[in-house]
Amino acid sequence: MAKSNRSRNKSRRESKAEIAARLGLEYRDGWFIRPSRGGPPITNELVQQLLEEADLKDAGLKPPTTVQIDVGDLRARSVEFTATELVVTLADSRKIVTPLDWYPRLQRATGAQRANFEIMPMGIHWPAIDEDLSIAGMLKGQRAKG
To answer: Cβ distance 135 to 96 under 8 Å?
Structure first.
């Protein structure tokens, strides 16, 4: 199996400009930018994903395919807590149930602090404990930091 350019030459690390050139990007002022489109800088996570895909292609492998799925209306309608879970009911009556220990601030909060929430267009905000959860993040299984 062919080795990728990066693994062939481990003694020398690619510069940001070399990485950008390999991915068809530009590296300016500390940011990776798509030259043909301009627009906002590209995140480090996307650069890492592009590098991994380029390495797979160099090795003669196909990168994983991303499938987009229409998940419908992701607006929260209500929020409830059990002793161990956060239960969010969406506008279309689906429920998302996640472990409360994924959200340390909510787990440590008092009942009154938990009850004081605001439903936002893309998630839920608890002002008293400065916690914000996105519905998309809950569906992805993302835990809160801290």
So the answer is: yes
